[in-house]
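User: I'm putting together a small comparison set for a docking exercise, and I want a reference complex before I start. The sequence is below, and the ligand is zinc ion. Could you produce the 3D structure with the ligand included, as structure tokens?
Assistant: Of course. I'll restate your input first, then give the structure tokens for the complex.
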Amino acid sequence: MQSFLTPTCNCEEFNLGFKCVPASGVKLEKMDEKGAEGIQVRWLITEKDGAPNFAMRLFELKPKGYSPLHRHNWEHEVYILEGECRVTCERQTKKATAGYVVFIPPNAEHQFANAGKTTLKFICLVPHHK
Ligand SMILES: [Zn+2]
């Protein structure tokens, strides 16, 4: 029998933690954080899936929606899928559209806002913060 500690993963026979699903099937949750407006999130991959380091989230912002202006000691790695994003990082604001990547360094004050007339969708990776 194959050990679960085997470092190489042949996912056909070793599927502990293997996940392959459409993102649309992951629950879309409302984000009720203070300072947030019109923003929803799908936690695509989390610690519950067995991911030891990173979470993958898919955000959906309605037109005029925005995340809170905030800072924390972990980074964001973002890939814009659809729509128009106005992203602010340390008082610098830029526009990002489908195909753009955004890196928010740790401790930088930042905010994401929908600058368009359609839903803004982006992937945001974060380390699990304890
Ligand atoms: Zn943040």
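The domain at 23-127 is CATH 2.60.120.10 (Jelly Rolls). The chain has a mean pLDDT of 90.
User: Thanks, that's exactly what I needed.
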